[in-house]
Amino acid sequence: MKQSIKVMSLCVALCSAMYIQAVPYYTARSQSVNAAREMVGWQEDINRCNEDHIYGSFSITPEYTQTFRSNRIASCIFGSDLSCSDDCGSALRIQGSLVSGRDPKAWLADYFGLPEDFDSTVTFKPRIRNFLVDLNFYMGLDELASGLYFRVHAPVVYTRWKLNPCETVNAAGTVGYQAGYFSGNPVAVSALSTSALDFFSGNAGGSNAPTLTTNNSTTSASGNSSLPATVIFNQLSCSRWANGCGDCSSSSKTRLSDVEFALGWNFWCNEDYLVGLQIRASAPTGNKPSSCYLLEPIIGSGGFWKLGGGLDFHAIFWRSECESSSFGFYLDANIQHLFDTCQKRCFDLCSSGTCKPGQNSRYMLAQRLQPVPTTAIDPLAPVNTLGVEFASEFAPVANLTTFNVDVKVSVEADIAAKFAYTNGCFGFDLGYEFYGRSCEKFCSKTNTCPANQLDGKTWALKGDSQVFGFTATTGVPVALAATQSCATIYSGLNNFASATATRLNTGIDTPVPSTNAFVAPTGAGNAVAQDSSSTPVGLTIDNVNFEGTRAISNKLFAHFNYSWRDCEDWVPYLGIGGEVEFAACGSCGSSCGSCGNSCGTSCGNSCGSTCGSTCASSCASSCGSRSGSCTRCIPNQWGVWVKGGVSFN
Q1: Quick check: 80 and 20 in contact, CB under 8 A?
Q2: Dihedral sign, CA of 226, 227, 228, 230?
Q3: How many distinct helices (H) and strands (E) make up the chain?
Q4: pLDDT in tens, 142-163
């Protein structure tokens, strides 16, 4: 007994350890791909032998499915940053840079416009629910050629995906920001958000929060008229967390899933055995991801056309003397290739060399840089290698790393096997299904707007750097170029000791003291030269981690059926069944619910003409799934169905 407990504990530990890499996009299998649901209940009415006429069957299968083990879903999309609890779900800490004894896995609250001493815990209980009606039709074409048949099926689906975030604020925070951290002026607590969910739902920053004004009024003697009047803090527009029912349509959709066709030939068929092959194709009629939301409801495969083949096999092991009862084995194996499709996807940044932005870095804060204007008053000195300065604009990294990509998936397999027992009009099926999908690979588009901004000189990571210094005599703000390419979602590299400490940019890239920008606008620290980066490090397309996912799952299913065999030309049947699917552990419109143009670019929220563009050179990057890295993610779920229909001769 003790040995069994040890083995089980080891398995749990290994499984938990594998769920360490976060993925910005969570995918489930298409609602159309379900060989178990497709094969049960009507095996006596399809794939007949020695027929000389057209026959067929039509079925309608309503099914309800729901995920379980919500912590597995949360682990896929947040990685090892979560701590788990059976009582409260998967938990994530959000803490400001001045919180004493910060959790090393806590996300830095400074990035989200929260006080420096803010502390909260966000819990998640993700859940995916589907209600569908699968329409399935089979026609035997033996009149044309012996063993020839055609089949098609497509579910109409209502799906609902909910992240279910819930925040507990442990400390609302009382400490604002010194002048120079976000703005040329100090930022009071009253100008900051009070909840992390405000930021992650896209309701913080922009026009929904107080502006962070710089000290540059042209009517003020201490103003710097060459700087913008306000600092822009852009809202999170991509990979948001849908929160509550203020935007219910962001978490649900209704439409037709993929339409699947098969043309087959049963070339070996007798009373007890059958072997057949088929050509299968799938037409995408569901929706594509837009990446506006982290847990985004998807119906179908996400826009992939598919083509492949299938194998049908069955063997009857036993029949009663009067042939009213039988017991047999049935196998359906379907394998398809997914043709490239264009999707809008959000990505994290790479972890490479000594810099580890890594997982969840899409929620870090980036600063926009611009060439120093020729008319600038008190321009930054000395001039850095790029000749740039802070352009008074911040944006979440997700707004910059969401763009159109070609998505490639080599193969998808759906293989179901069952034992079937019939006794007169009654039938019982018990089976197993394997599902697998190979790793996604990506190729970014050269003409998508956000990708063009990742040119190494327009956007850079802020970290916890001061972005303004101040002149020694008048104390007016001077825009710096202080980048932190090695900051992480957990912290910057300056790690200021207190709210009143002298904030010198010692942790930035290639720090060098400025000759005309000092630490504080007035007071004791004014004589201390502020550091800026002599060689600012901007974000490039090669910093983007094109991390894909793959999927493997195992399913058990059962079905009980009754057929009215006393009817000759039209045979109705009705059955009830269910399934339990276990994910294999791995390495882990309207303004309501649609992006519009909110994802931060003028390219809009659809692929449009960019699907025809050529791939960027970034496809050769060593980062992400292009080097073989791929996280395994697919939900655990259960489902129940009622399958009814009628067969005809």
Answers
A1: yes
A2: negative
A3: 5, 31
A4: 999 999 999 999 999 999 999 9
